Amino acid sequence: MDTFCFKVYYDETRYGERWRSHDPTDREIMCSHLIDRSIRPLFTAGFPANVMVNVCVLKTNWKHEADAELMAIIATSAALMKLNITQAGPIGVIRIGRINENIIINPTIDEQRRSDFNLLYVCTRQNTIMADLVASEISESDLATNIKLAQLEAVKCIDSQVKLRERYESDKKVKLLTSNSKNLQDTRTQSSNHSGREVALGQAHCAEIKSDVNRSDGRGSHQIRPVHCEAGYYLHALHGSSLISCGETQVLCTATIGKPGETQSVDVLPRKSFRVNYDFPPFCTNHIMDIFSRRWREIGDGMFIEKALLAVIPSQRDFPYAIHLNSKVLASDGSSSTTSVCGGSIALMDAGVPIKSHVAGVSIGLVTDDETSNGQLENYRIITDTSGLENDLGEMDFKIAGTRNGITAIQLDAKSTLLSLDVIGEAIKYGRQAHLQILDHMEQAINSPKETSYYKERRIEDDTGNDLKLSKNQMIVYLKKQPRKKKTECQKTLGNT
């Protein structure tokens, strides 16, 4: 087979929350994706069988206490350890938060909401597999310190799984179907030839980068692609919009401001006043596929964009309006989600949302010979602002978003090569350098939120319950049935505008 098929289904059954059965929610899809990202790098290349994992939450009080995502990853690791089919054995998982400068290990859901950063970290005994962070402009040094702490704490989880295996060890073995038939041998030969071409291409490309030769598009290892930003982009009828290009990747972002009551309820979580929709249509990569259902990529990248921008979004007290940011990828040659972070920041300023500062995003990659000694990479090179080819052939996908003051979100995924803490620290350093360059381009397009008038319109609609339509030459008020007092208040409010 050309690719190893690994599927994860995470299900929070409704009877566990006293609800009826349902279609998969965004939360369930994203938790399935978290498990996939944590486990997939453990399988050896060319694993000869497909694997499917089903994780079922029977009962939980996750809104207040239990972290079902963390428990699901641990349960998956323990189940696969019983089969002895993964390369690196059991994995450790930890979540770290911070409230009033106090570090909290495995915070409850309520504590996570009050934390100024939330780090989910997955590792083996020596190396990192996956990390997710949302933060309020955390510094590089603080992030490095907390990642090291996470590594030390997560290992304890590995020891517990090893004890579980020793206690309940059985004679179960995975039996893989094998055959010597000519048809299967021909299929294997064709697959090997196809994989061999891919391996040869990847090795040649990586060898060029590591030998100080320019990358496939002529850039140096830490040179970003040309950045072009436009605020407004001739879409004057919209509240806010932006068009941003990073090399061959181009994204159109729009920001819409709604009334304070127009918030979105997501699954069983509290209503959200700020939401992001990320659209990755097939034409942006010249592919043909089904477009009638949202995919993991769109949901996951949308959540990363939302986390990256959340640190600069004003509080509900200062800005009580609903904010809907839409990102549509027009063309993709890698790093479309981090480009969307930049475009989203510009669109919010163009809409007049009083965000604290711009947020930039960049993708960091890694090329290596995949040769390790004591768990450490011996020959590797980190590359900044990865293209589509480099992302496919590289060994790391590291998305970093932040302002000039600090980091707001990271999404780190190892591929077949697990990552040391030194490599992660080096990648963060280059990511921060790229942020400053990208922010310069963004601030040239727009450097402060625009002054707008339609917020007053939204406030009038929310206070009076009526619909107000404004144009250049007229104002139309659609009065609804309500007490006379409310109508009088509407008239007074309009008279003061």
Written overview of the protein:
The protein is of the alpha+beta class. It folds into three domains: 6-167, 2-Layer Sandwich (Ribosomal Protein S5, domain 2), CATH 3.30.230.70; 227-445, Ribosomal Protein S5, domain 2 (2-Layer Sandwich); 454-495, no CATH class. The chain is built from eleven helices and 21 strands. It has helices at residues 26-39, 68-83, 109-114, 140-167, 182-210, 296-310, 336-350, 388-393, 421-445, 454-464, 484-495, and strands at residues 6-12, 51-57, 92-99, 102-105, 117-123, 128-138, 227-231, 240-246, 249-258, 264-265, 271-272, 274-279, 322-331, 360-368, 372-373, 376-377, 380-384, 396-402, 407-414, 467-470, 475-478. The strands form six sheets. The chain has an eight-stranded antiparallel sheet, sandwiched between helices. It has a five-stranded mixed sheet with strand order 7-8-9-13-12. A two-stranded parallel sheet has the order 1-2. Helix 1 crosses helix 2 (68-83), helix 4 crosses helix 9 (421-445) and helix 6 (296-310) crosses helix 7. Mean pLDDT is 81; it is low at 265-269.
